[in-house]
C-alpha cells in the first residue's frame, strides 16, 4: 500500500481520530496523556475495525469453511500482509501473530535458544534492555549453560560501541538489542550492530516494541534475524504482537507451544507440525486484535511516516528545551540527535512517585518507577524515575502543560523555598 | 511526636471539600513529621510493599502507665510521609491492646483513603499497619 503523503501535519485532524484525547476529567480538566511508551491510544479506525469483526463476521480463525470463518481468515491474511510490508519481510510466512513483544522474545529464546544454544555460547545484551529482553535469555541461559554478557553504556546513555570488540567474539551466538530504549529514549544504531553480529556469525535479534510507533524498520536491509513488537504500542489493540523470523530460521526451530492449528498430523504417540507461520500460532490467536493491527499500521502509513517523524522531532526539541528550564531536573539519556520523544527524569528533592501523583492533579499523565528496566536504573544509580513519553498526537501545548505541572509540583513540595 | 490527633484529622478533612485539598493537607502533614534518625534507616526497619521507601520502628514506652506504643516512621516520598502522619495519629501512644483492636479499614474508608489511593499505595499503607500490629502482638506476648 503506497502511503498517501499528506503535505502537512494536521495535528487537530490527528487528534480528532483519537476519541479518548478529547476526554475531560471530572473537574473539567483536559487530559494530557504522556504515557504512550507504555501503551498508545487507539484511533477510531482501529476501534471500528474490532467492532466490525465482532458485529459482522466473527468466527474462529483458520478452521471454518463457512462464510464467517473464510472472511476472518481473509482479514487476518490482509493484516499479516500489511505487517509484512511494514517490516519489508520477504514473505508472510515470516510474520507470526503472538500475544506481544514479551511472548515473541520468549519464543525466540525458548524455541530457537533451546535447540541452538549450548554451554560456552554467549548471548550479548546491554544495560538498557527492557526486562522482556533480559529475563527470557536468563531463563534459557540457565537451562543451556550459555552465558549472558552485557555491553555497557556511555555516560550519556548510548551503547558503548567502542567496547563492542571486547564483548563480541566467535562464541557470541545472539546479539539482541532494543531499537529504542523505553527509558532513555536512545535510538540504537541497528545497522552497525547488525554488521557486527554478522561478522561473528551471531543471530541479530531486535526488540522493536518501543521503536515501531516512531518509524518503520526494514528487516531485509538491516539483515535482522528475529524482530518483535506489540500491537498496543503502535496504536493497535492489546493482546496481539508480532514475531518476525527469517523463514529458514523459523523452519529449523521447533514450535514452542502445542495445540490448535500448529499441527499437521496428531497421532497418539507423536505429532507433526504445520507449515509457517501456523507452526508458531498455537491455540486461538487474538483474532479481532490481529485484524485491527493491520488497520493501525495503515493508519500511520496513510498519515505518512516522514510527516510523523518531523512532528515528533519538533515536539521533542521543544520538550527537551522546556524541561531544561525546570530547576533541579535531570534528564537521562543522550542528546536530541540520538533520541526519540521519551524523557525520563528525576527532580532534586522530589520523589518520582510524588511527582507523578502531583502531575496527575493537573491532568498530566506520566509514568513513574523503574519502567521494567531495573538493571538500567541500577547503572544510573537511581531506584525510580519519572517518564514523559510523547506520541504523534501530542502537542506543544501539552509540553507546556507538563512544564506548568512540574512548577506546581515544585511549589507543592516546597522546593522553591 | 506528631501532635495532630485522629479527631483533628477528621475535623480538618471535613472542612476540606475535595480530594485535592485533602491531598495538599496530607503533604503538609508530611512536612510536620518528626525527624527520623538516620541510623534507623536500615533494611531491617524497611516496610516492603511500598513503591517508595518506608522505614518504621515501634517499641513499648514503659514510662507511661499503661505502657504505650512509641512509633516512628519516615519515607522518601512526601505523600507517603503524609500518610505516615495519619498512621501515627491512629496508633502512636496507644497501648498494644488498643492497637490490635483498632479497625483501621474503617478509618481509612472514612478518610476517603481507600477510594483515592492506588492498590500499590494501599498495599504500602497496609504494610505499615501490618508491621505495627505485629510489633504490638510481640509486645503483648513478651509481657505475658
Ligand atoms: C523496549 C520494550 N521491550 C518490550 C516491551 C514489552 O512489551 P509487551 O508488554 O507488549 O510484551 C516493552 C514495553 O514496555 C518495551 O518498551
Automatic annotation (TrEMBL), chain A:
<dbReference type="InterPro" id="IPR015422">
    <property type="entry name" value="PyrdxlP-dep_Trfase_small"/>
</dbReference>
<comment type="similarity">
    <text>Belongs to the class-V pyridoxal-phosphate-dependent aminotransferase family. Csd subfamily.</text>
</comment>
<dbReference type="GO" id="GO:0030170">
    <property type="term" value="F:pyridoxal phosphate binding"/>
</dbReference>
<protein>
    <recommendedName>
        <fullName>Cysteine desulfurase</fullName>
        <ecNumber>2.8.1.7</ecNumber>
    </recommendedName>
</protein>
<keyword id="KW-0663">Pyridoxal phosphate</keyword>
<feature type="domain" description="Aminotransferase class V">
    <location>
        <begin position="32"/>
        <end position="402"/>
    </location>
</feature>
<dbReference type="Pfam" id="PF00266">
    <property type="entry name" value="Aminotran_5"/>
</dbReference>
<dbReference type="InterPro" id="IPR010970">
    <property type="entry name" value="Cys_dSase_SufS"/>
</dbReference>
<dbReference type="InterPro" id="IPR000192">
    <property type="entry name" value="Aminotrans_V_dom"/>
</dbReference>
<dbReference type="GO" id="GO:0006534">
    <property type="term" value="P:cysteine metabolic process"/>
</dbReference>
<dbReference type="InterPro" id="IPR015421">
    <property type="entry name" value="PyrdxlP-dep_Trfase_major"/>
</dbReference>
<dbReference type="GO" id="GO:0031071">
    <property type="term" value="F:cysteine desulfurase activity"/>
</dbReference>
<keyword id="KW-0808">Transferase</keyword>
<dbReference type="InterPro" id="IPR015424">
    <property type="entry name" value="PyrdxlP-dep_Trfase"/>
</dbReference>
<comment type="function">
    <text>Catalyzes the removal of elemental sulfur and selenium atoms from L-cysteine, L-cystine, L-selenocysteine, and L-selenocystine to produce L-alanine.</text>
</comment>
<dbReference type="InterPro" id="IPR020578">
    <property type="entry name" value="Aminotrans_V_PyrdxlP_BS"/>
</dbReference>
From TrEMBL, chain B:
<dbReference type="InterPro" id="IPR003808">
    <property type="entry name" value="Fe-S_metab-assoc_dom"/>
</dbReference>
<comment type="similarity">
    <text>Belongs to the SufE family.</text>
</comment>
<protein>
    <submittedName>
        <fullName>Cysteine desulfuration protein SufE</fullName>
    </submittedName>
</protein>
<dbReference type="Pfam" id="PF02657">
    <property type="entry name" value="SufE"/>
</dbReference>
<feature type="domain" description="Fe-S metabolism associated">
    <location>
        <begin position="11"/>
        <end position="134"/>
    </location>
</feature>
